Amino acid sequence: MTHQILVLHGPNLNLLGQREPDIYGRETLSDVDAALRASAQAHGATLQTFQSNSESAFVDRIQQARTDGTSYMLINAGAYTHTSIAIRDALAAVALPFVEVHLSNVYRREPFRHHSYLSDLAVGVIAGLGVDSYLAALTFVLKQPSVRQRE
Questions:
Q1: 71: CATH
Q2: Which 3 state secondary structure label does DSSP give 103?
Q3: Which is catalytic among the residues 3, 80, 102, 117?
Q4: What percent of the chain has pLDDT over 70?
Q5: Fewer CB atoms < 10 Å away: N or C end of the chain?
Q6: Is the distance from CB of 52 to CB of 14 less than 8 angstroms?
Q7: Is 102 a known active-site residue?
Q8: Does residue 147 sit within a domain?
């Protein structure tokens, strides 16, 4: 079974390339998604992306992954990483493997960014590599055996 990968982008990631480029870089979210799709396709995997500034939409999309064939997730929950118990509970409920991704090195930033509500549920955490954080997470996922068989 091939991986069906869902990439979730949290709040303000729609502004990549414009928002604080010294921290987040100049590549746009469309650039990131295109690179991820191309890499996934080259490895025979399918990849969907979703971005929302709304916590409830983020939770709804995580719950949808439970039944839509998703086998793995890459999640950059943005600021929700540090604040959202609702997103954590949704991830625990769907019980799908995921890699937590951050463009910046959260440990070189404000102290409130040092805590994640998601990390202990994640298979791994990749931070501080800019857009390459997503690509490193995808490379890892593509090497994993499929962990989920659909009925």
A1: 3.40.50.9100
A2: coil
A3: 102
A4: 88
A5: C
A6: no
A7: yes
A8: no
